Amino acid sequence: MKPGATAYAAVNLDPSGATGPVADEINVLADPAHMPNAEGASLPLAKPGSVVKPKAGLYRATAAESLNTL
33: how many CB neighbours lie within 10 A of its CB? Predict the structure, then answer.
């Protein structure tokens, strides 16, 4: 990816489908050593859901590409 490009990372908060603590937002914190131009963000979830062993996809140019890395 080129500096300044938008990167997407898919997140699955509960890949097992189990019941766990409930979250209503996620916080995204970028590593400034690897992404010096990135900013952190707090993102509300469309609906609260369980969080059990969450997984994040790799950063990619599109959300679909990141989803394929989960």
Answer: 6
